[in-house]
From TrEMBL:
It comes from Serendipita vermifera MAFF 305830. Belongs to the neutral ceramidase family. This is Neutral ceramidase. One of its GO terms (molecular function) is metal ion binding. It comes from the Eukaryota. GO terms for cellular component: extracellular region; membrane. The active site is at S275 (nucleophile). Binds 1 zinc ion per subunit. Its cofactor is Zn(2+). Its EC number is 3.5.1.23. Zn(2+) binds at H116, H224, E468, Y509. GO terms for biological process: ceramide catabolic process; long-chain fatty acid biosynthetic process; sphingosine biosynthetic process.
Length: 702
């Protein structure tokens, strides 16, 4: 009896029921992978980066936190393996969820954050500029993102159960570097002296714990999703998706990727000037005196040329896939360090959300020094065409895009109008290259109206920002909001403010006024002019009172126009699939060897059809099967990092294609007998689609 009492007392200490009962928590995950072939990829916006297969599937991960006592106070935070949140997909996701759960989910409490990865399927943004390289809008990509995200959110909703939240931090020193250090140096010396690094190195992790153990995590850490280079054409999830895979696989090693019940949200933060290419930027200039030297500091050039300057990731000697694994692993290890600490700070208090639409074209406000100023209609400066050391850059259509691109040929007649004198003065000292804010043909090139949103979970406040804040811009915003929370008595000194972005709308970059003056890529891409950051600080600050315990949310206001109803779309559909005579779909063209050692690579080839006929969402285009008691049991899928699926058209007119599947055999793979299976869907000349599959002969792994 004494022992039982002690046990009960220990339980109360370990699981204080009040804390456990404070929140309702839900987690879910959904497959959002669009067409993995013949589609432009999103991020580098390079017409040549058209996808040819699959490395890892893209996922949306959904997290719901509600007050147990009053569950209508809830937030739904979605972390999506895409380059950025956008108004178009967000509108569709909000519409579907608010129709399915009226009064429960709305514009106010649904937040959509992109991991800012650059290896995903493109064509889903609704403004014109990001569509230029993808030949316009790609409905298949948009539909896949919306459907998989809604699935993740519904699963999260259906899994709501009592739980507790806690959080901690750790520093990840190797995880990022600043790719525009010369712009950072423009910030005041006394401000820079407050920080040890020119990047934020601290990862914040929130643990979601249920009655029977940990259910998931939310981590916040800034590093660009550019580990995989611009010449990669396999759809993947870059370093944040890798970190999520590594964590989920660590918790549930025997579940297929995307099929775990534990959900790991690796959320992007003030990513603007961060790079995962941590070895620095070097000249790739064979035969020139500066080959192999570091790029020039102020302009990131090699003999005055930007195209030869490339950042190198930590796995540079091996490959960008190795670098991607390493930067993902640093984040996984950092999150694990926090999650496995014996005690974390517990989170307690109200759940609140606030959301408004703001037109940033002429936002007029008073600066802290008393001067009244305003933002400008969007415009991009010359510096943005130079790109970054991570790649020639987002929307860099300086070369290659103006010729041989039918889409560009249509719109170029209406290339942005000459900026007005007022527009030029507003953006100074930025010289305007693209006057996007005064270009409305055939529809808006860049957004005027952005989503502004904040979530509060107890003493943690998440700022969902509509773009890429640089390191110092993010610090200024976080500090201003924390000061306001404390000054208004909403939270105490333990208030923790984190940034999540690019979220909800993509309004490109947000630098400090000093960095803007330097006009590197990030400053040139700060689209609402020099006062952009100060305007955002003003806007978020004015909304802080809505995070108070008793506050009611304001109305969201006027949303941006829906541009997805009749978008330009020039990408061609699938005509048909066929096989050469004597061959059949799924037939093995190159089989495996009889035996392999661990650490080596299996490579096999099949007669194929285009994977665009059926995206096989939540399923797989391949399995590596292991023979267990005489049965074939899937051991690896198309979303394990060790497998790659490469598709090639071998005859466009006749509709022939082939698929090469590789498996890098893990060192810890069980010895035994295996085969590779391929799953496809072919389109006949009448348009009907039929599933088929094929399997290789067996081979041994020892
Ligand atoms: C991709 O680019 C990197 C960096 O320039 C280079 O090292 C690598 O060989 C390229 N890969 C391919 C497949 O061309
Ligand atoms: C995912 O899990 C479900 C239920 O356990 C199972 O039916 C399904 O086959 C799994 N999917 C994959 C790809 O392993
Ligand atoms: C780069 O440009 C500067 C200024 O135009 C010039 O002085 C210099 O010689 C150029 N360097 C090379 C390597 O071409
Ligand atoms: C945003 O504001 C600008 C200037 O104030 C105005 O011209 C424009 O129509 C507004 N945009 C929308 C979508 O309301
Ligand atoms: C911006 O708004 C101010 C007043 O708030 C107005 O005086 C000015 O003309 C506006 N500018 C533009 C470009 O609409
Ligand atoms: C206030 O700050 C802005 C931006 O730095 C500057 O342009 C303006 O001159 C300042 N006003 C005063 C009164 O110092």
């Amino acid at each position: 009896m004494f022992a039982a009492a002690l046990y009960a007392a220990a339980l109360v200490t370990l699981y204080p029921s009040a804390a456990l009962a404070q929140y309702l928590l839900g987690v879910g995950i959904g497959d959002i992978t669009g067409p993995v072939t013949e589609t432009n990829m999103m991020g580098y916006a390079d017409t040549a980066q058209t996808d040819t297969g699959l490395h890892m599937r893209q996922r949306s991960r959904a997290f719901i936190v509600a007050e147990s006592a009053n569950p209508s106070n809830r937030v739904l935070l979605i972390n999506s393996d895409i380059a950025m949140g956008d108004s178009g997909i967000r509108r569709a996701i909000v519409a579907k969820l608010s129709a399915q759960f009226p009064g429960v989910y709305s514009d106010t409490n649904i937040g959509l954050v992109g991991t800012h990865q650059h290896a995903g399927v493109g064509g889903y943004l609704e403004n014109l500029l990001p569509q230029l390289t993808s030949l316009g809008f790609v409905r298949e990509t948009y539909d896949a993102i919306v459907a998989g995200t809604v699935k993740a959110a519904v699963d999260a909703h259906n899994s709501l159960a009592e739980g507790s939240l806690s959080y901690g931090t750790t520093d990840i020193l190797q995880g990022n570097i600043n790719r525009s250090p010369s712009a950072y140096l423009a910030n005041p010396a006394d401000e820079r002296a407050k920080y040890d690094h020119d990047q934020d190195k601290t990862m914040t992790v929130v643990k979601l714990k249920g009655a029977s153990g940990d259910r998931g995590l939310l981590s916040f850490f800034p590093v660009h999703g550019t580990s995989l280079y611009q010449n990669n054409t396999l759809v993947s999830s870059d370093n944040k998706g890798m970190a999520a895979y590594l964590y989920e696989n660590y918790v549930e090693p025997n579940k297929a990727p995307g099929n775990t019940s534990f959900v790991a949200g690796f959320i992007q933060a003030n990513v603007g000037d961060t790079s995962p290419n941590t070895l620095g930027a070097y000249c790739n200039s064979p035969g020139k005196p500066w080959d192999g030297q570091q790029c020039e500091f102020y302009h990131s050039t090699c003999g005055n040329n930007t195209q030869e300057c490339h950042g190198r990731g930590p796995g540079f000697q091996v490959s960008d896939f190795k670098s991607n694994y390493m930067i993902g692993d640093y984040q996984f290890q950092g999150a694990k360090t926090i999650m496995e600490q014996p005690s974390l700070n517990s989170i307690a208090g109200s759940v609140r959300s606030v959301h408004v639409y703001i037109n940033m074209s002429n936002y007029t406000f008073t600066l802290p020094n008393g001067t009244t100023t305003h933002t400008c209609k969007p415009a991009m400066g010359y510096g943005f065409a130079g790109g970054t050391t991570d790649g020639p850059g987002l929307f860099d259509f300086k070369q290659g895009t103006t010729s041989g691109n039918a889409f560009w040929d249509i719109v170029k007649g209406a290339v942005t109008p000459e900026p007005s004198a007022e527009q030029k003065a507003c953006h100074a000292p930025k010289p305007i290259l693209l006057n996007t804010g005064e270009a409305t043909f055939p529809y808006d090139w860049q957004p005027s109206i952005v989503n502004i949103q904040m979530f509060r979970m107890g003493q943690l406040v998440v700022l969902l920002v509509p773009g890429e804040f640089t390191t110092m811009a993010g610090r200024r915003l976080r500090e201003a909001i924390k000061a306001k929370l404390v000054a208004q008595g909403i939270l105490g000194d333990d208030a923790t403010v984190v940034i999540a972005g690019p979220s909800n709308t993509y309004s490109h970059y947000i630098t400090t006024r000093e960095e803007y003056g330097v006009q590197r890529y990030e400053g040139a891409s700060t689209i609402y002019g020099p006062s952009t950051l100060d305007a955002f600080i003003d806007i978020y600050s004015n909304l802080v009172s809505y995070l108070g315990d008793a506050a009611a949310s304001p109305s969201s206001g006027t949303p941006p126009p829906d541009l997805t109803q009749n978008p330009l779309s020039l990408r061609t559909g699938v005509l048909w699939d066929n096989t050469p005579s004597g061959k059949s779909f799924g037939q093995v063209l190159t089989g495996p060897e009889a035996s392999y050692t661990k650490g080596s690579t299996v490579s096999v080839k099949f007669q194929a059809a285009t994977p665009r006929n059926n995206l096989r969402l939540e399923r797989t285009f391949l399995t590596v099967d292991q023979q267990v008691n005489g049965n074939w049991v899937p051991y690896r899928t198309d979303s394990h990092p060790s497998t790659k699926y490469r598709w090639a058209r071998t005859n466009g007119l006749l509709g022939h294609s082939e698929v090469t599947i590789t498996w890098d055999i893990e060192s810890d793979a069980p010895s035994g007998t295996y085969r590779v299976s391929y799953y496809g869907d072919s389109k006949s000349w009448t348009g009907s689609i039929s599933a088929f599959s094929g399997s290789t002969s067996s081979f041994t792994v020892a």
